[in-house]
Amino acid sequence: MNGAELVIRARGLSKRFGQLTAVDHLDLSVRRAEVFGFLGPNGSGKSTTIRMLCGLLLPSEGEIEVLGCQIPRDAEELKRHIGYMTQKFSLYEDLSVVENLEFLATVQGLDKRAGRRRIAELLERYWLADRRDQLAGTLSGGQRQRLALAGAVLHQPALLLLDEPTSAVDPQSRREFWDSLFELAEAGTTLLVSTHYMDEAERCTRLGILDTGRLVADGSPRELMDALPGHPLLLECAQPRQAQRALQGMPQVLAMAQIGAALRVLGATADAREQIEQRLREQGIGAQVEETEANLEDVFVSVTRKPLAEAQTP
Predict the structure, then answer these.
(1) Which residues form the ABC transporter domain (predicted)?
(2) Which of 28-32, 125-129, 167-171, 227-231 has the lowest mean pLDDT?
(3) What is the pTM of this model?
(4) Cβ atoms of 204 and 224 closer than 8 Å
């Protein structure tokens, strides 16, 4: 294996549920040891895509190859080489922490002695050793998340698929969880993570933005920001809410968001700044409008033409 090897290759991938097209002719390539992020609002097709990639859902159209396995033909073989974790943390709440892991080790066919060593290693790595005899149902959100991750990597999968795994935990647990993910990537595990949090998307080595089942952007966060077709502006004024109302409905304004006492505006064209300044003068609003650096929020709004709130609503 080398760093350029494709671990996931999908071409023309589609999934329809009756009249609803959840995934629409998606092409996707993920290389070994990448941390590839899916960013998109609920209903954009992230979960459906992940379920097809790991063989849990049959595609309506398209070709899928994961770790050299053709899906759906080799779905059973693939299960031995991947880990899958969802936001629901599939744990047995009436079993203890260690009993959950022992059960998974049996299901995955691990040798008993090797399984015990691996479980002990993971309990230490994910700060669960002092909770080994506690019932999973009594753990905090962050502890449950760490236990679910330990279960997903128990058999040392080459590929780990995570479907919005941090949506139910606090910010500190999210940071610790991402540290664990980068540790796995450093050891050679490929990760595909879906999220609707911009700060998490920025952590990924590569990012795909989904909108209504289509991949509308693909690249590193830096590449996507550098290629932004819109023009981000920062508007400083004493009355940002009044300024926002004045600019509402302008075709040159793709999106606006108040940041403290300032207003962040995504302009559609290079001359948007001039037209915005003119509109504010006409409305008697004094403001200083300056160009500012692009961020992933700007990219999301530009490629989907959706308000940011739609992406970050759990």
Answers:
(1) 8-237
(2) 167-171
(3) 0.87
(4) no
What tens digit of pLDDT does each residue of 73-116 get? 999 999 999 999 987 777 889 999 999 999 999 998 899 999 99
> Helix axis angle, 141-152 relative to 171-186, nearest 10°?
20
User: Which of helix, strand or coil describes residue 136?
Assistant: helix
CA 103 to chain centroid, in Å, comes to 29
| Mean pLDDT across 120-142 | 94
Tell me the Cα Rg of the chain.
23
Domain ranges of the chain: 6-224, 229-293
At 242 the three-state DSSP class reads helix
Q: Does residue 237 come out as left (phi exceeding 0), alpha (psi in the -120 to 50 range) or beta?
A: beta
Helix (H) or strand (E) holding 72: none
Q: Which of 262, 41, 29, 44 is nearest to 167 (CA)?
A: 41
Residues 181-205: pLDDT tens digits?
999 999 999 999 998 888 899 999 9
Look at domain 6-224 and name its CATH class: alpha beta
Q: What is the DSSP string of 121-133?
A: HHHHHTT-GGGTT
Within the chain, what is the greatest distance between any pair of CA atoms? 77
CATH code matching the domain that covers 229-293, chosen among 3.30.70.100, 3.40.50.300, 3.90.1300.10, 3.30.870.10: 3.30.70.100
C-alpha–C-alpha distance, residues 210 and 304, integer Å: 8
Length of the chain as a residue count: 314
Backbone angles phi and psi of 214, in degrees to 5:
-115, 145
Beta bridge partners of 304: none
* For residue 310, pLDDT beyond 70: no
Tell me if 87 sits within 8 A of 174, measured CB to CB. Answer: no
Ramachandran area for residue 8 (φ above 0: left; ψ -120 to 50: alpha; else beta): beta
